[in-house]
Amino acid sequence: MLPLNWFPALEHPGSEEMFLGDGLARFGYLPSPTSAANPHGLPVGFTEDKNAGTWVGLTCAACHTSQINYHGSAIRIDGGSTDADVYAFLSELSKALAETVSDPAKFARFATRVGANEARTKRDLHNELSRFMAYFATFVDASTPTSPWGPARADAFGMIFNRVAAIDLADKPYWAWFQSLESNYQVPDAPVSYPSLWGTPRLDLVQWNAVAENRQPYQRLGRNIGEALGVFARINLRKPATPLLGYPSSVNVANQKIIEETLVHALHSPPWPSLIFGAVDQAKIASGSAIYKKYCSDCHKPLTIEWKNTPDDPTRVIAVKKLPVGDVGTDPSMAVNVACRMADTGTLAGTRQPPVIGLGHKLESRDFVVNLVSNVVVGVEEAGLFDGTIQKLSASHTESPTTAHSHLQLQNIPIPFRTSTVIRDNCLQNLEVYKAGPLWGIWATAPYLHNGSVPNLYQLLLPADQRVKTFSVGSREFDSVNVGFDYTTGTFELDTTIKGNSNSGHEYGTQMTDEERRQLIEYLKTL
């Protein structure tokens, strides 16, 4: 993200308060106390990254750790959905950098904190900070929505697509003056909720639109590389000199693989905390189970306890159901953007990743962005594989050198994203879908629908025209009756009439009586 020693030295824009003073709680991140292991007081999910120098970066935990408060008690949920406002954080950080460059007094304090005390070192620091500020401002500008996403949501694919296609990609060879393809930019206007991570390695397809293949370790790795490219990873995009070089980047490919295959695999869905919220109503569960079977189980197949308790068993693959956007009726923006967006492919036109005919898609001069990003993700993965990093780390971590080496064979690099040769109305037909999977831990994943446009389970079970059209987001106080967060207080008002925010659709079982809704909610608490 930025050099580690700069982060705690920055001040708020417009004041002398330290940027990290509240542990970023003002943005919804979870503060973590200063300690020997965390000397800078970085929030949960922010960490020291020694890849290509000492920087501060993010781990999965920044976006996938949640906290639920209830009558004075706090429950931390690993693998849950953050309620942080990522754009507010990025925007304020960009302003803090800009003011530190432009305000002599603010820069002088910053320089003292990072140990630049001599005139020459101050000039060098100012030049370095100026260059970084401009680069970061370009990234933030490309990530700026027309309407703020607010807490607990981000247009992740919009950020990834803009970063790869409109910032990192050039229309000249890498040795020429850099000219990014700004014409590929598109406003990131399709925010989605951060999905919970428990059980993710077991699904055959992931992402809200089921675009990412997920059965094989290197498919899961590809998904994580794409997410890293969407935020702070840096990449050198140019036509490889030989088919096996890929694209050098700052992505720590080896660590990404280990985090996914160990930590994420070990996550379990959280059980309903009866000692804090109160016990579920046993009298309603049996009736709720029958209602679930009638209205929900066709798309959200219930899992047995044995399946839920073996998250690291690779043989227990769960096939998700793909529902056409028109059938489910929810906001189409995210699925349509991924299925239909196109871009100039610049210097990568004509390349194929993996560079094997029959495996990698050969990029046209103008192609679907999902094909372009797939090419780039495989190229980054390829570079990480063939520089020996993963081979050495895997051999020392969990695999024998022979096994690790076998993973490096080019033909075993899978394509991370589903694509199609079937084009309808200028869109990839098979991607205009949304995913329906298991509802394990559903009680802990509010707000609901893929775009977080419904505040609680009770509202979700109502006909769409009866759901609240505006509500507050950002409160961690839990409503154990309706199952969701208190939506009468919060830091941001979500307006479901804005493009990307619609709370329409998913009207399954909406003809239920109010008592039947309550019975179903009690059953959902047990999943």
Describe this structure in words.
With 527 residues, the protein is an alpha+beta fold. It has helices spanning 86-102, 104-114, 119-142, 156-168, 217-230, 253-264, 274-277, 282-295, 305-308, 325-328, 333-340, 369-386, 389-397, 401-406, 457-460, 514-524; strands spanning 2-3, 46-49, 55-58, 65-70, 73-78, 153-154, 192-193, 205-206, 212-213, 321-324, 342-344, 352-353, 361-362, 366-368, 423-424, 427-428, 433-436, 470-474, 478-479, 484-485, 490-495. The strands form ten sheets. The chain has a three-stranded antiparallel β-sheet with strand order 1-3-2, with no helix packed on it. The protein is globular, with a radius of gyration of 23 Å.
What attributes characterize this protein structure?
527 residues, alpha+beta, two-stranded antiparallel ribbon, 16 helices, 21 strands, 13% strand, globular
Task: Give a quick summary of the entry.
The protein is α+β, with helices and mostly antiparallel strands and 527 residues long. It is 33% helix and 13% strand. Among the domains are: 2-58 and 86-148, no CATH class; 204-267 and 332-433, no CATH class.
The average pLDDT value, as a whole number, equals 87
Cα-atom radius of gyration: 23 Å
Strand content: 5-15%
N-C termini distance? 37 Å
| Number of distinct beta strands | 21
Percent helix, as a range, is 25-40%
What sort of overall outline do the alpha carbons produce when their principal axes are compared?
A: globular
Which segments are poorly predicted (pLDDT under 50) over 5 or more consecutive residues?
390-411
The tally of helices reads 16
Structure classification: alpha+beta
Sheet with the most strands? 3 strands, antiparallel
Major sheet strand order: 1-3-2
